[in-house]
Each structure stands twice: as structure tokens, then as C-alpha cells.
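Worked Example 4.2. Read the sequence first, then its C-alpha cells.
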Amino acid sequence: MERVNRILRHPDFIRLQEELDRLEADRRFCRHGMQHLIDTARLAYLFALESSADLPKDVIYAAALLHDIGRAEQYRNGTPHDVAGCAAAEPILAECGFAEEERDMILTAIGSHRKEKSRVSGGAENRAGEAEQIAEGSGTQKKAMAKEALAAILYHADKKSRLCFLCNAEAECNWAKEKKNMTLEY
């Protein structure tokens, strides 16, 4: 996990996360600080283990730690944070030793973490089926399916990391009802 620790020590990551913390200091709704990032990473890793997805732990953690890194830019100028996040995350990942193929997988997950569009969705049984398909596919198919699996796992971990069922501002939140985590499942 040395590469993940490099992300945590990277000056751009630190600067952008500190800026985001300042911008969200008075935010009533969910914040996007380190607690959220770590919760998302841990859930994503658990989801990957449950599904037997062959995804490296440091790739999962890197995607989770960087998935909201574009939020400060979104607050500043309206650029969607998934788009801004990909631009900010790419050089961080490169400087922290992630190979081009890994960066592509992580950036795809960051760029799509706001949209549920993957086959890896629902309960653990669906994720397990996807993992079996990944294991049986060709090299190219495996890479594409692993990329899709990481994106789906990150999407679900991001949503499930939120405790909407305990939130005092839940009724005012603009998240769609189906995205809100209103039950304890994991």
C-alpha cells in the first residue's frame, strides 16, 4: 500500500483536500473529507472481496481516495467534480507509481462514480456473478470487465458510505431517493 500512502502525502492531494475542507466547513449536508474517503475505500475493498473481483487493493484505495478530489474546483467554477477529479488525479497517480493501465482503470472509476451504469450492482450475488465472468474472459475482456467492476464498486461504496438514515438534513438533500442509504446493508 506504499503507493496509496504516497497519494496521502502528495502535495496536490493535500492542497486540494485542505481546500475542500475549508470550502465545506459550514456545509450542512455530507462532506467529502478524509473520513468519507477512507469509509468509501474500506467499503469498496470489502465489496471487491465479497464479489471475488480480482482488483488490487491499492488500486481500489487509490480510486476511493481520489474520487472526490475535483470537488474544490466544482465549488470554484462549476466544473463537475468527476471531470475535474480525473484531471487532478492523473498526475498524482502517475507520480505515485501507478502504471498507465491502472491509471486508466482508476480514472474511469472516478469519472463514472456519479452514475450507476455498470452490471455490477445490487447485492453481493450480482457482484459474484460479474467476478466469475471476469475470471473466464480473455485478457482484453478481463481488463474491460475489471475496469467496469471497479467503477461499479466505487459507485456503490460511495453511496453506502453515507449514513442518510441518520442525517438531520436528509429531507432537504437533493440526492435522488434511490441513491440515499436509508438502510444498513453492509
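Now turn to a second chain, presented in exactly the same format:
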Amino acid sequence: MMILVAIGSNLPDPARGLDTPMAVCEAAVTALRALPDLTIERVSPWYETAPVPRSDQPNYCNGVVRFEGEIAPEALLSVLQGIELRFGRERSVANAARTLDLDIVAMGAALRDAPDPILPHPRATQRGFVLLPLRDVAPDWIDPRSGVGIEALIAALLPE
């Protein structure tokens, strides 16, 4: 099954010697490579993006990893949250700056409204910082909820 995970960071992790958000993201990919029963098929290029919603936070480094494998959604969410914690992730207010954010974008064609994780990610199709790197790793991806392809989703975000 194709599994898509978004990676984002806008803070360094000095405790781990990672002095930039990109270094955090690259180290996160290394941690993700160690997951049993999952194989990384592709890693997108990194994108520098402004925070959403707009704020005075530093810009983000964003990308998407494409896995192949089998894992229960709850198990994957737990593993990803554990990796975030190891990288110094602190959960405070919504949309706060963070050392690492790992979000499950989609797991095959799974549709899931509850419990967490909701699949596909409920806001992924509205976020260019997810869709652009997602296109790099899965150019034929179709949102299982709407049936809309990646190119049309990206086009819908562009100003007219």
C-alpha cells in the first residue's frame, strides 16, 4: 500500500545538533528509513514555505515521503508522534512553530473519519506546501475522498 507522510519543520533542534529546519527534516527521513515493514520509495525535494496561517514565525521546510508497506493507521500515527517527540516537538497552541511535524496524508485509498488519524488528512488538499511535494513523489495521486487528481487540486489553489 502507498503511504504518504508530510514532513515539516521551522525550528532547529540544537539538542540533536541540527541547526536548520532542513537538517531536521533530513534527519527525520533517516529516522523514517528505520521503520520496520515500511520502505521509503521516494522523498520529495524540500520546499521553503511561509507559515499557514500567516504569522511572524520562521518559514517552514516541507516535503513528502512515499512509503510502501503495511501498517495499521493507529500504529503509524503512534510511531510518527514518537519520532516528533524525539526531535523536541512540543504541542502547545495550534499552528505553533515546531521542530518537526509528521502528518499522514494518505494510506492507499483508505477513508477514515474517526478515530485519529483521519484519512486522508482533512486539510492536505487545501495546502500547497503538502500538494507540491506530494506531486513529486506521487504524480498520479488521486484524493480518495473527492476523486480529484493532484494536478487539479494544485490548480484549484492558484489565484485566478
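Notes for the reader: The chain is about 30% helix and 20% strand. Residues 73-86 form the longest helix (14 residues).
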